[in-house]
Amino acid sequence: MTRNFTQNFVGGKRVDPLGSEVIEVRSPYDGSLVGTVPLAAQADVDLAVGVAREAFDEGPWPRMPVADRIAVIRKFTELYEARSREFAGLVTAEMGAPAWFTDAIQDLIRNQGEAYLIAAEQYPWEVRREGYPQGASVWIREAVGVVAAIIPWNAPHQVALAKLFPALLAGCTVILKLAPETAIDGQYLGELFSEAGLPEGVLSILVAHRDVSEHLATHPGVDKIGFTGSTVAGRRIASLAGQQLKRVSLELGGKSAAIVLDDADIGQTVEALRYRSFPNNGQVCVAQTRILVSRQRHDAFVDALVDNVQRMTIGDPADPGTFLGPVVAERQRQRISDYISSGLESGAHLAAGGLGLPEGINHGAFVKPTVFANVDNKSSIAQEEIFGPVVCVIPYDGIDDAVRLANESAYGLSGSVWTNDSDKGLAISRRIRTGGLTINNTAPDLLSPFGGFKQSGIGREFGPEAINHYIEHKTVAV
Question: What topology does CATH give the domain 257-445?
Answer without folding.
Answer: Aldehyde Dehydrogenase; Chain A, domain 2 (3.40.309)
